[in-house]
Every structure is written in structure tokens, then in C-alpha cells.
Amino acid sequence: MRQIYHAIYETMADWETGFATAHIRNGEYHKEPGRYELVTVGLTAEPVVSMGGLRITPDVTLEAIEDPAMLILPGAALWDAGDELAPFAIKARDLLEAGVPVAAICGATAGLARAGVFDTRKHTSAALPYLQMQQGYGGAGCYVEAPAVTDSNLITGNPVKPVEFAREIFARLDLYEPAILDAWYRLFAFGDASAFEALQ
After folding, report:
1. What's the CA gap between 181 and 154, in Å, rounded?
2. How far is CA 150 from CA 62, 146, 161, 170, in A?
3. How far apart are CA 52 and CA 12, in angstroms?
4. Which residues pair with 15 in a beta bridge?
5. Nearest one of 98, 94, 54 to 74, comparing CA atoms
6. How far apart, in whole angstroms, are the C-alpha atoms of residue 24 and residue 101?
7. Cα(95)–Cα(177) distance, rounded to whole angstroms?
8. Spatial contact of 84 and 78, defined as CB atoms under 8 Å apart
């Protein structure tokens, strides 16, 4: 079983990765049920409180990440409040250089921008001006106006498009057969009743 590490920290925007985490854990429709395990990772072992008020205790700390299948970075007010979460951005950069997928949304994209991750990779975020405010960002030429973008092992997402972000994560993990992934997206993005029938 491969570990997918989900970063958790104070002020984490819990809804941004909710579709992804729920359906990674729910093995229904998976090509290979039981292939992945979701593991929460924090800077320390202390519990954190999400933006939605959920109190979560990390399974492991950042130093304990081992042979990850992916690292998922949600947004958080802390990404815009200083460098407290910089270790996650540095870890993401190291993992990408080692060929490990990283998925970042909302404020986490600002952290990756400051770490130079976007300079040569296609990416998106809340808006290009938001990233241009980040010291060290040199990737404006690689910015794409889209709900979510995948460039090899890097997945980035707009904070108001969590379903599209999840779809890119599932595709990169090869979680579903293509027809199932399409039906999942049509159901959760558009409430398409025919998609529910396809899933059954």
C-alpha cells in the first residue's frame, strides 16, 4: 500500500481537498482497491485546527515522510502570513525533483511560487497577480488560466474548483478507469444523473 501524504496545518482550508481525500479513502470504483493509504502530515505532532474548525492530529511529521505516492498541500491563511509553512514548500520541491507527484491548491501555490517551483512548470492558482506578489516567483510565462492544471508530476488548482483539482489528482494516481473518472466528474461537478447511473 502506497502512502499519499496530506499536509495539515493551522487555518487549513479543509474544503479544498475534501473531494480528493474522501474519494481516495473510499475505495468504491477504484481500479485497485487498497492501493493507497491517506496519511496526514504536520510540521509537529501537535493537533491543528482547520479553517472549518476541525481539530486534527497529524499521523506523522514532515521528517517522517517515506516513499510517498503523492504530497497534497491545501491552502491556508498561514501561507500568506509568513514563512512558517515554507518547510512544506521545500519538501514539495525536493519531491518533484525526485519524480514524486505534488498537488497544491490556493495558498499552497503561493508557497510553491516563493520556492521557485513554478519557474519552468505549467501551473494555475487563484489568479496570476496573486502569484506575482510572491517574492521569488518567476513563472508568469507558465501560468495557465484554468480550474486545475497538471504538468507531469505537478498539479495545481484554483481554490474555488476543488472538484477539478480532485479529478487531476485521481488521474495522476490512476485511481479510476477513464470512463469512471469521467462519470465521477460529471456527477460531482454538474449533478449529472446519467453519471450516477454509469457509476452503478
Report:
1. 19
2. 24, 10, 14, 11
3. 8
4. none
5. 54
6. 15
7. 26
8. yes
- Per residue in 48-103, pLDDT (tens digit) is 999 999 999 999 999 999 999 999 999 999 999 999 999 999 999 999 999 999 99
Give the C-alpha distances (Å, rounded to integers) separating 153 from 78, 112, 156, 168. Answer: 25, 14, 10, 11
Q: Cell 501561507: give the residue.
A: 79
Q: Is 106 a catalytic residue?
A: yes
- Can you give the pTM of this predicted structure? 0.97
Cα distance between residue 166 and residue 6, in whole Å: 13
pLDDT tens digits, residue range 15-53?
999 999 999 999 889 999 999 999 999 999 999 999 999
Nearest CA among 26, 5, 168, 178 for reference residue 100: 5
Q: C-alpha grid cell for residue 135?
A: 517574492
The x, y and z cell numbers of residue 187, run together, are 456527477
- C-beta separation of 31 from 184 below 8 A: no
Catalytic annotation, pick one of 106, 148, 173, 187 = 106
